[in-house]
Amino acid sequence: MLDVVPALLIAVALGAALWFFQRRLFGPAGSRPRAALRLTAVILVGLALVGYGAFRLSKARGVQLAGELVTHVDTDEKVVALTFDDGPQPAYTQSVVDTLEAYDAKGTFFVIGNDAATPPDSLRALVSAGEEIGNHTWSHPRLLAISQGAIAQEIETTDAVIREAGYSGPIVVRPPNGKRLLAAPWYLWRHGRTTVMWSLEPDSIPGIADDPDALVTYVRDNVRPGDIILLHVMYESRSASRAALPRILEALAADGYRFVTVSQLLALRGR
What is the value of pTM for the model shown? Predict the structure, then answer.
């Protein structure tokens, strides 16, 4: 699998470096048992460092091994893109759409294909409301150590559901939990797709995720022009995010911000 390639290359380079430095520090091993012990220690330390590095890289918002990655767009215009992951769910979709409409805002909804297809009414409601639809895979797996065929199944099946709902706009892509190493970015790059991450994710921060007041304050204090804001509003457990949404819209509008879709935000690059 492609995700193994960078790990192996890093492991080889790191192992060689560790072996070189241990010889410089401690000199020749002197005997086969001591050499074997040192080699074992080098391998274990190298594997630990590679594992830690791969873990950090897999969830890094601003670094990617292949393809185009977007977390923020540099612009002088006071615009932000509100994005919503997961779902859609019948219980909450229309209320979220109504809230956005009340503030003349459009969002980008990264839908899970399985949720969007069963039943498709909520997805159709998003399409009818003119929201932008993004692809958040079919079953929401972590796209790590996964084959290109499995990634294609996750992405393309969800694309098909989105098109069947009548959506004709661009379909942007966000890996579940933002997790990817090489396999998923490689697939998206080969198919001309951009990996869309985020600048602010207030409802994933311990201590404020369950407090609407804290969510609003965090966004207002940290937002910058060109930010991509991620919220989760589609499940029962996300009542704080739903309660914060109209207040976030009101606060940002009062500060002079306009609300655009991710595709509209990407169009501002280089302007």
Answer: 0.82
